[in-house]
Amino acid sequence: MKKLLYGFCALLLLVCSSCRVKEQWVLTWEENFNDWKLDTAVWSVIPRGGAWSSYMAPYEELYQWTDSTIQLMAVRNTLHPSDTATYLTGGIWSRYKKEFKFGRIEVRAKVKCAQGFWPAIWMCPDPIPYPYGGEIDIMEHLNFDDFVYQTSHSHYTINLKRNDPPKYATAPIDKDGFNVFAVEMYPDSLVYFTNGKRSICYPKVNGGKHGQFPFAYDPFHLRLDSQLGGNWVGPVDSLQLPVYMEVDWVKYYEKR
Questions:
Q1: Positions of E strands within the chain
Q2: pLDDT (tens place) for every residue of the chain, 256 residues total
Q3: CATH code, 131
Q4: From CA 143, how far away is CA 37, in angstroms rounded?
Q5: Would 10 be classed as within a structural domain?
Q6: What is the phi/psi pair of residue 107, to 5°?
Q7: How many domains is the chain built from?
């Protein structure tokens, strides 16, 4: 009788296990930059604006193409005398065109190095004013560092200057090759990866009070850009230009 009971329990466990659906990431969208031009249904050139985009421009030489990548350039301004900017940089975003929420974003990219060069892969929501809607920095690289920063910004971290829980981590990279940068977006956490290795989890704490976790409310658009100069990265050495960030692909996964 005992053997029969054990057998029944084992059979029941086997049936329940076979019925359980395993969650997995499913690729639902990707951009491979294979067409030698931007897909304008998804991407726009970032316009010149605030401090971080003070050198952005739409000029053709800032967007170089290979068979399978786009290179977002940072150069001295020698070709556009009517433009008073000392430097020019290229950047693209999916703002007002394609947004992402509760999934995994991966970007395969290579960064060149120069003093004052600051390439970034990051996400923001619309139309919430910064920093109340949050900012997801999937990758920021400075100068000749052999690592990148991955950071979660919000009213809580910027205005209130709180770093509990820790808002950022660094992750080593191959400075001479391509690296894969990723973030997984959940209703209660952001989890960052570089080359498949987890670097930091930024969780929702205390119910997200004081704007600590705005990342669960609105969808985010993606920004890929080259930047020059600023207090954080330091002055630009113009003799080390041009440089660029080269992007191979972007992939978006959702849970199934």
A1: 25-31, 44-45, 63-65, 70-76, 87-89, 91-93, 104-111, 120-125, 135-140, 147-153, 168-172, 179-186, 189-194, 197-203, 220-225, 243-255
A2: 555 445 544 544 543 443 445 669 999 999 999 999 999 999 999 999 888 899 999 999 999 999 999 999 999 999 999 999 999 999 999 999 999 999 999 999 999 999 999 999 999 999 889 999 999 999 999 999 999 999 999 999 999 999 999 999 999 999 999 999 999 999 999 999 999 999 999 999 999 999 999 999 999 999 999 999 999 999 999 999 999 999 999 999 999 8
A3: 2.60.120.200
A4: 28
A5: no
A6: -135, 125
A7: 1
Residue 3: CB atoms within 10 Å: 7
Give residue 243's identity as a one-letter amino acid code: V
| 6 found inside a domain | no
Contact 74, 117 (CB under 8 A): yes
